[in-house]
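HOLO CASE FILE
Compound: flavin-adenine dinucleotide
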Amino acid sequence: MNKKKVILWFRNDLRLHDNEALDEALSSSDEIYPVYIFDDRVFKGTSSYGLRKTGKFRARFIIDSIKELRDSLRLLGSDLIIRSGHPEEVIFELAKELKTNWVFCNRERTHEEVLVQDKLERNLWSIGQEVRFSRGKMLYYTADLPFPVTHAPDTFTQFRKEVEKIVPIRDPIDTPATLPAMSINTTSDPLPKMKEWGFSEEEISDTNDLIFRGGEQNGLDRLNQFIWKSDHLLHYKESCNDLLGVNYSSKFSVYLAHGCLSPKMVYRELKNFEKSRLKNDSTYHLYFELLWRDFFRLMGKKYGNDIFKKSGIKGATKKDLVDDHALFRIWTEGRTGMPFIDAAMKELNSTGFMSNRARQNAASFLINDLNVNWQMGAEYFETLLIDYDVCSNWGNWNYLAGLVNDSREGKCYNVINQAKKYDPKGLFVKKWIPTLANIPADKVHQPYLLSEIEQTDFGCTLQKEYPDLCIKKEFYQ
Ligand SMILES: Cc1cc2nc3c(=O)[nH]c(=O)nc-3n(C[C@H](O)[C@H](O)[C@H](O)COP(=O)(O)OP(=O)(O)OC[C@H]3O[C@@H](n4cnc5c(N)ncnc54)[C@H](O)[C@@H]3O)c2cc1C
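Model generated. Tokens follow.
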């Protein structure tokens, strides 16, 4: 009998632990050909506002992750075929060349990814092959939920209440001990260099500990470090709105977004920790936050392309937001004259990361204070964030723009109140905007109110060392 040969297409699931597509490929075949395609639309393309789809931080993180994935596959007796191009064509050609039976992959649910997988499927049908889709993005399996996706609750609280007590979370699948070797030799491209996409390695300074390196092992190490090797988890509920350093929050998002870490693995370790060490509000809170991720994924499934539209999930917007490119640029460059926002944007531009508290404020400021179209902000985050995740990013922006079917009309933050509450000593703004260093804490969040004498005394002359507030001041007196 002919051996069953399959292609295993890695996408946003760059790991060997708890990888359902890998597990199903193993149990259905004799030979597996693991493949990763660097899709030039993703790595070289631009979005509707002309921004790079993938910025330098995420590009490097993915290259790291692919390198590590290839090394891990080799250790288990297999390898990774790396190619560049359009997956629907490249994998189709590979399937013809290798005369495989199926292509296994984890299913994506958002527009561009679905177009690619559908096209691949149709191509494969023409040669009598097909795609076999698996799952693995979420903590919960949609099949286990007590409601169909189309009836998923539109509010997070309702969603949480319906799942947390009654739906069990499945165990993660183990990493296989070995993998079958590939008997047919086929070409594999070298790992791309950053400069092929117009970036240089040197642009990224590794001196900042918020610049994360990709790979499954780094994801598992971070999991181990945050949950087991430190006390950070035990204080997470109190610290998760902090702004400085690495350990106030888990930083799992960067690994979860690319599948270097599985959410079920995080959950298992969390539960083991609760059983063997301690269960408190903070351990629960990490699970609570992970539920947000599932919630937005579910909203992405339920509302499809609506999450990208200006009118969002709700299909209607009350705010008359405009495509003001000048204000948008001021916001992206951290020159609004509002230190809390400028520091957040400078952090994002320098590291590819921004805390949840800062993301909420930066988004709210763009929408509610600058009156700029939220889609521009979402696209900017898409470019820059290492942890960019289609549903989490666009879902959160929908939320902040008041476009979800929630009783709340979007969150409008008073940025000054937020800054004083979460950065009372001004350490966050001073870190990212050194020209504010000499301003006392009680004045540092409002340099636009400084008298001329104070400006001279603190070495922060408005319009010279730091911009004046780019919007009317009355509201923020
Ligand atoms: C405008 C905006 C855009 C965002 N874009 C993204 C994005 O592209 N990718 C992304 O992963 N998160 C996004 N978030 C959610 C959140 O800011 C990040 O998940 C979080 O800051 C990541 O840091 P952490 O892993 O240390 O989080 P922790 O506080 O340690 O939380 C643990 C995990 O819970 C999940 N989580 C927590 N809060 C949220 C949330 N509001 N929405 C979805 N998941 C959440 C994440 O997977 C996170 O890793 C966005 C939030 C806002 C307000």
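CASE NOTES: The CA atoms of residues 4 and 170 lie 29 Å apart. DSSP finds 19 helices and five strands in the chain.
CLOSED: yes
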